[in-house]
Structures are given as C-alpha cells and as structure tokens.
Amino acid sequence: MDTADTPENQASRPFHLLEAEDVCALLEVTPTDGLTSEAVTLRRHKYGTNEIIETVGHPWWRILLGQFTDFMIVVLIAAAAVSGILGELTDAIAIIVIIILNALVGFIQEFRAEQAVIALKQMARTIVRVRRDKITHVLAAAELVPGDIVLLEAGNMVPADIRLLEAIDLEVDESALTGESLPVHKIIASIKDKDTILAERHNMLFRGTLTTRGRATGVVTATGMQTELGKIAVMLDSETIQKTPIQKRLAVFGRKLALSIIAICTIIFVAGLLQGEDMIMMFLTAVSLAVAAIPEALPAVVTIAFALGASQLVRQHALIRRLPAVETLGSVTFICSDKTGTLTRNAMHAELFYIAGVEYTTLASRDAISSEIKIFIQALALNNDVEKNPTGKLIGDPTEIALLQAALDTGIDNTALSKSWPRMAEVSFDSSRKRMTTFHQGKEQLLAFTKGAPEQVLEHCTSDIHGQFSHAAILDIANHWAMRGYRVIAYAYRDWPALPEPIDANNVEQELTFLGLAGLMDPPRDEVPAAVRECYQAGIKPVMITGDHPATARAIAERIGLVHDHADVITGKQLERLTDEQLSGQVNHTQIYARVSPQQKIRLVQLLQQRGEYVAMTGDGVNDAPALKKADIGIAMGEKGTDVAREAADMVLMDDNFATIVRAIREGRRIYDNIRKFIKYAMTGNSGEIWTLFLAPILGLPLPLLPIHILWINLVTDGLPGLALGQEKAEENIMQRPPRHPQESIFAHGMWQHILWIGLLIGALSLFTQAWAIQNNIENWQTMVFTVLTFSQLIHVLAVRSEAQSLFTIGWLTNPALIGTVLLTILLQLGVIYISVFNSIFNTAPLSLEELLFCCTVPWLVLLAVEVEKWLVRHGMIYRDSN
Ligand code: ATP
C-alpha cells in the first residue's frame, strides 16, 4: 500500500470499477491468508480505529443553559434583579444563588442521564469474523483496518466499506444508507460505468447496512470516518434520549398544571396586596411559589430515572436499545419466547442415531464401520458451516456444532475429509424451509448432502441406501424421539453427474436418498422453571414459539412448567389454515406454537395485540426482525442472534436467557414504581407549599414564608431525597400483582387524592404552627413555619417509600441513600437556623430548644396520616381501582 497516500485518498479510490484481484493487490492482501499482524499494526496507526465519531448527546454547556430557559425561572431572575435594584440586594443575590444551585442539580442529573444513554449506545457493539495470519478470528468491528478480509453471513451488520471477493446468494438491506427498502442482490463482477451511484455499486458493501441472505467474503476498503456512512455521520443529529409515553403525557399534563398554579399564585399575589403586603415582595413570593410548584422538571426527571434504570438493567444482562421499553416492560402481559437457547441452554449434544434400521447411542469407536455409517458420518462432518477458531474451539450454530462433534468423536480427520471433498456449492439453511444442502466434489463423485427437519427432508426422499424405504416408519421414530425432548435432524444425499443449474432449493432438494436421523438433546436452563412460575404469579403468560417439532416443543414446555400434560400445540401448518377469527379465539390460551415460520410470528403478535394484550417477543434470525418491530417489546439475543434482529429490537438479552426477561420486567416495574413515588413525594410537597400560602390570607394570617424560604425548600427537598427514592428496592409483592395497563394514568391508585389531602395536611400543620407561635408572641414564627414545612416533607419522603407497606414493616434503614440525604437535609436546615451568616441571608433566627422541639414534633403527624392511608389501602378500603 502506498504509505504516502492519505486515508482520504485511499478511501476515495473507485474500488467498484476494479476487478476483485486488483483490489486485493492494491490493498496488499492475499484473500486466503488475510493481513499479517504487523500489517494490521501499521495500518491501525495510519487509519485509526474503525469507529464513527457520532455527534451524540448535547454539549454540556447546552444542557446547563437549558436549565435557565424556563419561562418562570426567567421571570424570577428578572423580579429578583428588580428587587435588588430597588434596595433588597442581599435578598436578590440569595435568590439568584439558589436558582443557580437548583440549575446545577438539574444539570448534573441530566448530564448523568445523557452519559448513561451514550454508554448504552456504545455497548451495542458489533463483532465480526476476520481472516488474519491465515486464521479466522472473531473481533470487535472497531478493530478492522483497510485490507482486512471479512467473512459475512445472513444477519450481519456490515462493519466497514467492503469490496466483495465472494458472494453466495447475497442480499443486503441498504435502507439505512440509501433509503431503498427492498434488499439488493450483490455480485462480485466489476462495474464498468464510472458514474455508478452508491445504490448501484453491486459489488460493494457499505458500513451500517445489513446482510439479509447468503454468505460473503470481502476486503475492507475504508474504515471509520472514511466510510460512506462516516461521511454522512455528522448529518445524523441523533436524538439522544427518546421520550417515553409517560414523559409525553406528563409534558401535556404539566402545561395544564402550570396554568392552574399560575392562577393560584395570582390569587395569592392579589390577596397579599389586599392585606397590605409590599408589592415587590408579594410579586417575588408569587413567582417563587410558581417556580417551586410547577413541576417543569418532571418529564426530565422521569427520563433521567429511566435512563439510569436502563444502565442498571445492563448489570442484569438486559441491554435497552430504546428507552421507552424501560417503562413499558411493566405492562407486558405475554412473553412469546423462542425455545432454543432462551428456554434451553443451547448446549446441544447428539445422543441418538438411526442408520439403516438400527438405533445407536454413539457412533464413536465403532470398529467395523458399515458403508451406511461411513457415509452418514461423512454427511455429519461436511454439511455444516462450523469453523474452528485459533484455539481449536468450534464456532457456529450449536445444532451444527453438536452434529459435527458427533462425527469428530468417531475419530475422523475432518481436515483431510474437507480437503478430499471440497464444497462446490450450497443452498443455505433458512428457517422456513428448515433444511440445507451442500455439494462436495470427490475424486470420482459429486455428492449433495441435505439435512433438516425430518418431515421436510423425508418429503423429498425417494429411497434409502438399500432401496427399501418407509416414510411413515421413519417419521414415527422421529416423533418418538421428539416426544422425549430431542431435536431430530434427518440426513439424505444425492449423487450428481455435474453441478445442476440453477442451484436452488426446488431444483436441488429432490429425489434424495435417505441416510439417517440424529437426535440432539438441549436441556432446559436451570433458572427457567422458577422464572416461568414468577410469570404466572405476575399475571404474565409465557408462550413458546419454535421452529422445532411439536412433540419436542411440548416435552420441553412440560419440563419447564410452562404447560401441564397434554397441552394444545398449534403448528405452523394449522396456523395457515385458521382464519384470523378462529385463531383469535385460540391465541389467548395456546402456549405452544411449533414448526412456525418467522412470518407467522407477526400474525400472532398482531392478533394478541388486537385482543388488548401487551406483547414481548424474542427473536434472533433475519426473518424475525419484522415481528420484533411489531411487538410492544422486541427482544433480541446478544450471544447467538443476528445483528439484524438486534437492530430491530427494543432490548437485547446479553445472556440469551428467558429468566433475564422476567428479571427485566421486575426491574421495569420497580423503576416505574419509584418514579411514581418520586412524583407523589415531590407534588405533595408542592401542594403543601401552595396550601400554606393560599390559606394564610384567607385565615387572616400574615405571609407565612419569604421567597427565599420557598426556593430553599424546593432545592433541598426535591433534589437529593427525590433521587434517593430511585434507589428504593422492589415492593415485596411486585411480581404478584397484575401488569399495569399501558394507558393507566400515573396518578392512578389514589395518587392525586394523596397529593391533595396530605398536601393539605402539611399546609395545615404549617399554618397551625404559625398561628400558635403568633398567639404565643414568638418572634421567630416564620423560621418555625419554614422548618415545619421542610421537616414535614422529609418525614413524608420516608412515609411514601412503599405504596402500601408500613415503614415499620419495610424497615427505617433499608434505603441507606435516602436516610443519608434526609440527615444531610436536616443538618442543612439546622445550619440555616443556627449559623449567623445564614440568618441574615435567609431572614431566619436561632430557635430556642422548645421551639425546635415543637418543629420536630408536629411533622410526625404526616407519618401517622400516611400510615393510616396505607393501612386502609392494605385492607382494600380505599383506592382499589381508582384512576
Ligand atoms: P427455537 O425456537 O427452538 O429456537 P428455531 O425457531 O430457532 O427454534 P430453527 O432454527 O428455525 O428453529 O430450526 C427449525 C428446524 O430446522 C429445527 O427443528 C431443525 O429440524 C431444522 N434445523 C435447524 N438448524 C438446522 C441446520 N443448521 N441445518 C438443517 N436443519 C436445521
């Protein structure tokens, strides 16, 4: 490679106009060997890593500035400035300092949330198969350099710009780059026309597109920002944080609430004037109250909770790709799951064989191997796409690994066998046909081996090696094995005089000679039965949708407790025959679907959704992508799935485990609960402040609080304790209650009543304190009201830690973060009362011991009230179904 050339020049070469060999020569690589480690190091130095520097997230200063652009904040700053100019300079400065502190809290939260989302994005990394130093490696896509030889198969994300060297039946979805929604067929021939546009460069693959069919080998021509996607990446102004349904609804609600609060504040302002209060002071008070009480930050706080929740979910092996999924997880009523790998371990092992009328439990160390067994072993060894990694580990589809392993266990030399029977052509596996065929050229023979689901292979068999052949008898054996939980694969072959034309399933998979059966066992995952039980308790129906045989599906379903004996199984063929109405009547209670094609999954999702169900669906193949998009929560596999499925999914299971879905649902419910608790806490506090200031003039009391007090309470009570509520553990019965209806109001189950009446109680306690202190000629009455209001909110935050459980049951110290912030806030409040500098800033005065005791006693009534409320809830007396 021309070392003086710049990466830009290099990448802009017209590789599509050149022949494949010339491209390799230009990039100084031999396709069969790949680059050497030294070459990779040099090129990495020159071209950098294969990463696109996206402009994700907002710059920090924009997030910070965003904190000050709220209309009421601007009014408050202006009002404070005016009051400062008119004389109350300290007051004005204090108010502005508090506004700044408040903004900082908001900024830190939002910044953390953005970072969490960006970190999530970066975890969704692609891995690729690369040939280097003559060996196939599995690497992170970021490590690719120009000249690397990349191996791709259906379902891969194209990791860089690539010139194709080999393309078998290759189709690519390029919509991400060109907008073209139909898959594009790719070939390797060079293109003659110099002016060919990107979308028509059929011998090139572009980063960010997806292979939907076939296999390919290619050489990397451009990486990172030099790729076509990299060139336009700057234009993709990706919205970093997606809005969740609740956030959207809260934004609408917030606007209405803001108007009501402004109306109340106007009344307070006018009432104050009528009572003879100073106008500027009254204006500042009214605006401060509006700023404190309008929950303008609520949608942001909710999103932050979801974003942080999503980063906690990663620790539970669930990677959230679309943020709204965190919220909607709690509404799932159906989990439609694949079987292999999700419910089972995907650690398959061949345990049974049927060859020429005899059943074997092993093929290994068979001394006198018959010709039937010999050719069967040959088929096991050759008909697969398994590869060996440098350490000798087999990489590929577990079904195929198990079958190849059975061949290797007999002691054959697979490398020699593959050399003497090289693969000439193939019709790759697809889950609708459920079979695959490979052609191998021997010295004198051209053999095609076909393997697949027994009924799919036998359908095309006309004889067996001895010419005697009974479909029914063999299917019967396969069925018996399936009933014992085995995945059964049938093998057949055909002797060809020459490669047929064209090589497609219809033409090739005909007139086969049956060879034998293999039975694979894939035991259920240990943690699945418990997860299934948890689903039932939580009102969620688990459903198995598999490409496997109905009997295998039922055997496994029974073993994990998904169904009881003799449960109904609907097969793909039956699905085809049922009308939508008929099927709709059955989807509600059918829990096993077998021999289903991915296309049929979409229909199942649709019908369930029409019945008002909220569906989570797993999938791993290319054809699963539409069903994953259609499901309310599409779930892809992190370990075995395709990139195509992952791109379409809302959530990725990093361990492919069904139990992880259930854990994520539990976590989703907890996060939602805690958001509700936060809203309940914050809005009840606001309601308490409004009641206090609204009722005071009506009761003939002077203005109970100064603007700075209101802002301070808002700052110390909303910020830290609110965040600590997010740490609250799951409620004890969280997985024993039915799923939340997705349209349910966040204020359901008595929340708005709580906000009003506990708020009123807090207001009453503050005004009682004020009246009592004035009555007893206590000069510090305002400091007392200020303290009672603050302490009431701190006690309230402890009381709302559970929706129904008593604080005495869940334990006072079980949320250390919350206890910590409550203690800190008490200390801050005492500082404001007893440190003289703050006395002048906050217009407070040190309280006597008696006065302080009074302020520490009265707020406990809030705890009493909330505990009574929870007792009534526990005994089903209030808020049973209220919305
Ligand atoms: P599950 O839901 O259990 O994960 P699946 O939907 O992944 O199953 P597929 O992989 O589509 O099932 O396989 C369907 C059927 O195709 C299997 O039962 C098996 O008979 C056959 N089959 C699977 N893998 C191969 C393969 N590599 N070659 C040939 N046939 C296969």
From TrEMBL:
<dbReference type="GO" id="GO:0016020">
    <property type="term" value="C:membrane"/>
</dbReference>
<dbReference type="GO" id="GO:0005524">
    <property type="term" value="F:ATP binding"/>
</dbReference>
<protein>
    <submittedName>
        <fullName>ATPase</fullName>
    </submittedName>
</protein>
<dbReference type="InterPro" id="IPR023299">
    <property type="entry name" value="ATPase_P-typ_cyto_dom_N"/>
</dbReference>
<keyword id="KW-1278">Translocase</keyword>
<feature type="transmembrane region" description="Helical">
    <location>
        <begin position="257"/>
        <end position="274"/>
    </location>
</feature>
<keyword id="KW-0547">Nucleotide-binding</keyword>
<dbReference type="InterPro" id="IPR008250">
    <property type="entry name" value="ATPase_P-typ_transduc_dom_A_sf"/>
</dbReference>
<dbReference type="InterPro" id="IPR044492">
    <property type="entry name" value="P_typ_ATPase_HD_dom"/>
</dbReference>
<keyword id="KW-0597">Phosphoprotein</keyword>
<feature type="domain" description="Cation-transporting P-type ATPase N-terminal">
    <location>
        <begin position="14"/>
        <end position="88"/>
    </location>
</feature>
<dbReference type="InterPro" id="IPR059000">
    <property type="entry name" value="ATPase_P-type_domA"/>
</dbReference>
<feature type="transmembrane region" description="Helical">
    <location>
        <begin position="812"/>
        <end position="835"/>
    </location>
</feature>
<keyword id="KW-1133">Transmembrane helix</keyword>
<comment type="similarity">
    <text>Belongs to the cation transport ATPase (P-type) (TC 3.A.3) family. Type IIA subfamily.</text>
</comment>
<keyword id="KW-0067">ATP-binding</keyword>
<keyword id="KW-0472">Membrane</keyword>
<dbReference type="InterPro" id="IPR001757">
    <property type="entry name" value="P_typ_ATPase"/>
</dbReference>
<dbReference type="InterPro" id="IPR023298">
    <property type="entry name" value="ATPase_P-typ_TM_dom_sf"/>
</dbReference>
<feature type="transmembrane region" description="Helical">
    <location>
        <begin position="781"/>
        <end position="800"/>
    </location>
</feature>
<dbReference type="Pfam" id="PF00689">
    <property type="entry name" value="Cation_ATPase_C"/>
</dbReference>
<dbReference type="InterPro" id="IPR018303">
    <property type="entry name" value="ATPase_P-typ_P_site"/>
</dbReference>
<dbReference type="GO" id="GO:0016887">
    <property type="term" value="F:ATP hydrolysis activity"/>
</dbReference>
<dbReference type="InterPro" id="IPR036412">
    <property type="entry name" value="HAD-like_sf"/>
</dbReference>
<dbReference type="Pfam" id="PF00122">
    <property type="entry name" value="E1-E2_ATPase"/>
</dbReference>
<feature type="transmembrane region" description="Helical">
    <location>
        <begin position="746"/>
        <end position="769"/>
    </location>
</feature>
<feature type="transmembrane region" description="Helical">
    <location>
        <begin position="68"/>
        <end position="86"/>
    </location>
</feature>
<dbReference type="GO" id="GO:0012505">
    <property type="term" value="C:endomembrane system"/>
</dbReference>
<feature type="transmembrane region" description="Helical">
    <location>
        <begin position="280"/>
        <end position="308"/>
    </location>
</feature>
<dbReference type="InterPro" id="IPR023214">
    <property type="entry name" value="HAD_sf"/>
</dbReference>
<dbReference type="InterPro" id="IPR004014">
    <property type="entry name" value="ATPase_P-typ_cation-transptr_N"/>
</dbReference>
<dbReference type="Pfam" id="PF00690">
    <property type="entry name" value="Cation_ATPase_N"/>
</dbReference>
<dbReference type="GO" id="GO:0015662">
    <property type="term" value="F:P-type ion transporter activity"/>
</dbReference>
<keyword id="KW-0812">Transmembrane</keyword>
<dbReference type="Pfam" id="PF08282">
    <property type="entry name" value="Hydrolase_3"/>
</dbReference>
<dbReference type="InterPro" id="IPR006068">
    <property type="entry name" value="ATPase_P-typ_cation-transptr_C"/>
</dbReference>
<keyword id="KW-0460">Magnesium</keyword>
<dbReference type="Pfam" id="PF13246">
    <property type="entry name" value="Cation_ATPase"/>
</dbReference>
<feature type="transmembrane region" description="Helical">
    <location>
        <begin position="92"/>
        <end position="111"/>
    </location>
</feature>
